Amino acid sequence: MKFSYILAALIIIVNCTTAPAMAQVFYPPKSTDSTPEQIFKNNCAVCHGDNGDGNSRASSSLIPPPRNFTIAGDLTREKMIYTVTNGKPGTAMTSWRTRFTPVQIEGLVDYVRGRFMQTAIQSQLTFGRMVYGHNCQLCHGDKGQGVLAKDLKVAPRDLALAFAAGDLNHTRLFEIITRGLPNTAMPAFSGKIPDEQINAVIDFLRDEYKAVTPPPSVLPSAPAANMPVDMSLPMPKNLVGDPQWGGEFFMNNCSVCHGTLGNGQGPRSNFMVTKPRNFLDDLSRTTLNRPAIFSAVTLGRVGTEMPAWGQVLNDQEIANVTEFVFQNFIHKKSTP
Ligand code: HEC
Ligand code: HEC
Ligand code: HEC
Q1: Which residues have any ligand 3 atom within 6 Å of their CB?
Q2: At what angle do helices 118-135 and 195-208 cross, to 10 degrees?
Q3: Whose CA is nearest to atom 29 of ligand 1?
Q4: Rounded to a whole number, what is the largest CA-CA distance in the chain?
Q5: How many Cβ atoms from other residues are within 10 Å of residue 202's Cβ?
Q6: Which of 137, 273, 277 to mutate to test the pocket of ligand 3 (most atoms within 8 A of CB)?
Q7: In contact, 216 and 316? CB cutoff 8 Å
Q8: Which CATH number is associated with domain 14-116?
Q9: Do the beta carbons of residue 112 and residue 47 sit within 8 Å?
Q10: pLDDT digits over 98-134, tens only?
Q11: Where are the domains of the chain?
């Protein structure tokens, strides 16, 4: 008894989500469609909603529900063109290739992106920029080569040139970033950062090298810590830092963001969403003890452009630069 109910229910569900049947029911072809806006209203809005947010009469009965474009910042233009042309198997999204010309489909996708997706696209790019700052910038730099490039046997190719050569589509980038490049320092990021971040950094790079305007500042800086901190704690792992080595390293590699004075106003800071930490302010002086600096330098600050130096410096080197920051900026007034 029970079993046949379940079976019946399954058959109904399967029938409901069989894509071609749905599309036939909803959409008699309309010859009046001409502008992308009209095409969207007459053919897509019934599922994706008038505002592109997936809020439509059809949405509650479809599994999966139609895409909400207003939060789908990870959808690339190519992927959308592909899906609209070919449909998406296992969903109610059918192929439109017999209804519209390729040019109409491109126009339609650009309309959807411009009209509904701007905010989502911008925040995806901001996210990608941070992933880049955190994981890639040390070697690849802002444009071209990063601070570590000169120490590598095979220096990273200027990404602008690689993109200009036209061989870096999404699939190729995903492959390079997840698997790395053999015989070079290009690491395999598979398992180190989630796919979501890899996709974001790809979107960021592709956008960056198309010279589109950068995203606006949307993300807040890190919250202040309120816990009292023991500022006299020693360096982790019994290390003793060499502030002279650290100072040289700081001036060559950190001052571009944190400033030569440690005030967070290095030349790059103007362009950054979350500003580099000012080591002279009260918050820094009451929270950034040696272990905190050591850990921040090693791991970077997730969600900002602060790189994870642990990927390229050893513990002793990190202790050196930590000691320099601590003595020269944090504890300037009363040396321990
Ligand atoms: C019958 C309902 C329906 C109609 C009509 C419809 N879609 Fe969809 N669409 C869906 C569903 C369902 C999905 C899949 C959502 C998912 O996988 O999360 C989808 C997904 C998409 C995606 C995302 C593709 C991806 O790879 O994830 C795009 C882009 C899209 N639709 C564009 C359109 C456009 C443009 C039209 C009009 C020409 C249209 N859709 C008409 C139901 C519909
Ligand atoms: C430790 C240094 C290092 C880090 C970190 C690094 N790369 Fe690389 N990358 C390289 C080197 C070296 C190459 C190979 C030289 C070359 O052919 O460009 C390379 C090559 C590449 C290429 C291929 C360029 C081409 O010439 O076709 C891409 C794309 C790329 N890296 C993206 C990234 C991204 C994205 C990240 C961060 C998620 C990253 N890299 C992190 C050093 C690095
Ligand atoms: C590309 C720019 C950039 C570079 C280069 C950089 N930083 Fe940062 N740094 C940041 C940003 C952004 C933050 C985050 C500020 C925040 O969260 O308020 C930060 C935060 C920090 C913090 C505080 C972390 C915390 O937990 O609050 C320390 C310490 C620090 N950086 C040290 C360094 C040192 C040492 C170097 C060089 C080895 C360096 N940074 C290089 C951008 C940079």
Answers
A1: 133, 137, 221-222, 250, 253-254, 256-258, 268, 272, 274, 276-277, 288, 293, 296-297, 301, 304-307, 309, 321, 325
A2: 100
A3: 80
A4: 82
A5: 24
A6: 277
A7: no
A8: 1.10.760.10
A9: no
A10: 888 888 899 999 999 999 998 898 888 999 999 999 9
A11: 14-116, 119-208, 236-330
Q: How many Å lie between the centroid of ligand 1 and the Cα of residue 48?
A: 7
| Ligand 2 centroid distance, CA of 203 (Å) | 15
- What is the C-alpha separation between 143 and 281, in angstroms, rounded? 31
Q: How far apart are the C-alpha atoms of 181 and 139, rounded to whole Å?
A: 14
| Helix 290-299 with 315-325: angle, nearest 10 deg | 130
pLDDT tens profile 236-291: 889 999 999 999 999 988 888 899 999 999 888 877 777 888 999 888 888 899 98
**DSSP string computed for 266-315:** -TTGGG-SSPPP-TTSHHHHHH--HHHHHHHHHH--TTSS---GGGTS-H
Residue ID of nearest Cα to ligand 3 atom 13: 276
Instruction: Name the CATH architecture for the domain at 236-330.
Output: Orthogonal Bundle (1.10)
Radius of gyration of the chain (CA): 26
Which is the CATH superfamily of the domain at 119-208?
Cytochrome c-like domain (1.10.760.10)
| C-alpha–C-alpha distance, residues 217 and 122, integer Å | 10
Tell me the DSSP string of 215-252: PPP-PPPPPPP-S---TTPPPGGG----HHHHHHHHHH
Q: Which residue has the tokens 């209804």?
A: 99
Instruction: Copy the structure tokens of residue 330.
Output: 């944090």
11-14 CB contacts, 8 Å cutoff, 24+ apart? 13/63
